[in-house]
Amino acid sequence: MHSLFAALGHSALGRYMQTSVWGFAVVEAIHLLAIAVLGGSVLVIDLRLLGVIFRKEPARILGRDLGKLLLGSLLVLILTGIAMVSEEALKCYFSPAFRWKMALLVTAALFYFTLHRRALIHADENAVTVWSKIVAVISMSLWLGVGVAGRAIGFL
Amino acid sequence: MPFLQHLCQLLYDSRIGTAIRESDNAFPIIESVHVLGITLLAGTIAMLDLRMLGAILREIPVRRIARAVLPLTWSGFVVMFISGFLLFWSEAAKNYTNPAFRVKLVLLILAGLNPLIFHTGVYRRAQEWELAAVAPWRARVAAIVSLTLWSGIIVAGRAIAYF
Q1: A–B: how many Cβ contacts below 8 A?
Q2: Main-chain dihedrals φ then ψ at residue B6, nearest 5 degrees
Q3: Which residue of B has its CA nearest to A37?
Q4: Structural domain of residue A81, as residue ranges?
Q5: Nearest-5° angle of CA A113, CA A114, CA A115?
Q6: If DSSP states are collapsed to H, E and C, what string results for chain B?
Q7: Which stretches does DSSP call E strand in A74-148?
Q8: How many domains does chain A have?
């Protein structure tokens, strides 16, 4: 894993990100814009699971359309994220905040594709249950954790 | 010294402004809240805009989406305004001359005018078109303007740190 990060840092992408004046700033700005879309989708889907908003709308439609937004923005975040990591790959490799972020990201994504998906399908035909509420709270906490840990990379 | 610059200097020199600036953790914590608050504010605005453009949630009437999302947008606005003002408080004298900050303020004013025009215009007849998969052109223009302005605000906001 260490050599993978070292290779990323020495790659053409890494060298571009390290030497370009505006490269990092532009990539970071795109990363931020995608955060707005991903966060908004997570928020609305999970508030539906909690029964706070869109109680009368089929969870299936919300899950389908906002799920597309979520996955689309996640792809943008991963691509811009790789570019940002390449700028200081080894610093990220040793950063506790970065490791936390990756662990939380993998957990959040796995949770989204498994239990969260099942809760959405279930919520489509049924009233809000304690189970769907728990799933929503876990989902929001995981994604918030990814964001907080990500912000902390710059500070720790 | 121009009046506004004088005001910025007063804020900058004030006890609270100085305390935020000199604290090790205050600025990063407030800034993190400000960054994550983008989700509440811009994320929910984008949702309504994308619906009017016919990109998502075509089956759900526009006004129902607006009703569901607007309280989130407003709470996002409160979070962003308070955290943003605290950040400004600690950096006011520097922000005054910062070109990115100035651009951000202009874009914020424009982003505030856009819903005023929208809500007093085409949205008043929303019951006639809210079921359509794609909203009428005036609403689509408002949506594209909104998406552009809010993207610009986020980018300009990030750019403040680079000047």
Answers
A1: 90
A2: -60, -45
A3: B43
A4: 2-153
A5: 125
A6: CCHHHHHHHHHHHCHHHHHHHHCCCHHHHHHHHHHHHHHHHHHHHHHHHHHHCCCCCCCCCHHHHHHHHHHHHHHHHHHHHHHHHHHHHHHHHHHHCCHHHHHHHHHHHHHHHHHHHHHHCHHHHHHHHCCCCCCCHHHHHHHHHHHHHHHHHHHHHHHHHHC
A7: none
A8: 1
* B99 contacts chain A (CB < 8 A): no
Distance (Å, rounded) from C-alpha B65 to C-alpha B131? Answer: 11
ipTM: 0.91
CB B98 within 8 A of CB B158: no
- Do residue A29 and residue B158 have CB atoms under 8 angstroms apart? yes
Overall pTM > 0.90: yes
Enclosing domain of residue B64: 3-162
pLDDT tens, N- to C-terminus, chain B (163 residues): 789 999 999 999 999 999 999 999 999 999 999 999 999 999 999 999 999 999 999 999 999 999 999 999 999 999 999 999 999 999 999 999 999 999 999 999 999 999 889 888 888 888 889 999 999 999 999 999 999 999 999 999 999 999 8
Give how far A3 is from chain B: nearest CA, Å. 31
* Count of domains forming chain B: 1
